[in-house]
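Deliverable D4.2, example record:
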Amino acid sequence: MRHASIIAAAGLLAAGCAVAQEVAKPVYRCPGPPVLYTDAITLAEAKSRDCRTIEGAPISVVQTRRRAPGDAPAAGPSASGNGASTAKPGESKVDPAAQKARDTDSRRILENELRKEEDALAALKKDFNNGEPERRGDERNYAKYQERVAEMRAAITRKEADLAALKRELAKLSN
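Output generated by the structure prediction step:
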C-alpha cells in the first residue's frame, strides 16, 4: 500500500513538471549593445532581431522597469525634515540653505579628519626617525628590525596617500 502511494506521488510530480515545462517560454539572447536576454518576444521578433534561444543554461530573470527620458524618480516630502523638496525638471532638488549646511558639515568633518591624519603622520615619522627607529628588545634579529622598518615605511606612504585624498576632497568642496 505504501509503495503504491509513493509511485502515485512520483507520477503526479512528473506530470506537474511536464506541464511546467510546456508552459515555460523559450529564452532568447539578442545581440547588440547591450546584449538582451528575454522571454517576452515572439519567435518572429526573435528571428528578425537575429536572437538565439538559450537552452540548458540556468537563467535568473530580474524584472526591471525602464524610465522614459523625462521620467524622474518619485519624490515626496521628506519625513526627516532635511530641507529636501519635490522639484520639477530643471529646478533645484534641495533647498539651497540645506545644501549649504550639508557642505559646511562635510567641510568640518573633512578638516577634522585631515588634522587627525596629519597628527598620526607626524607621530609615525617621529617613530620612524628617518629610517632608523629605535630597536626594541624583541628585535635581536636584524631581519625582524628591517621588517618593522619596512612596515613603518609602508604605513607612512599609506598615510600620505590618505592625506592627499582628504586634501583633494576639501579642494572639491571649495569649488
